[in-house]
Amino acid sequence: xxxxxxxxxxxxxYVTEEFSVATRREVQSVGQLPLTGLHVLEITNAFHVxxxxxxxxxxxxxxxxxxxxxxxxxxxxAGVALDWPKVFxxxxxxxxxxxxxxxxxxxxxxxxxxxxxxxxxxxxxxDDRQLSLARAAGLGAVxxxxxx
Length: 148
Known about the structure:
mainly alpha; 11% strand
């Protein structure tokens, strides 16, 4: 697994929003994706926030959660164990080196650090700062806003 999707990009696979088509196409081209505990937390939270804002019905929420769980069970989203102390160490190094210029948020830095720790070569996102950080960390940055 060489491609890492940021949580907000992964949500676009399940919830139709801007750039969902490009994200789904990207996911289809890579097959299996790593899934960290950070992804699980952020995706679960995103689905419940959408329901809390009444943008999803209870039935739609259940459907999304079931679809997400199906992808986990089929290993299309492959749960990976991270050495979180190493990820946080890498994240702190990235913050020290790049945050003054790139103005990245902590969770974006954690995703880039996780991708580095997993040995991924590409990071998929729609966040310009996170993509810049991915490039600075030596990853290929796939901007779903620009893919066709």
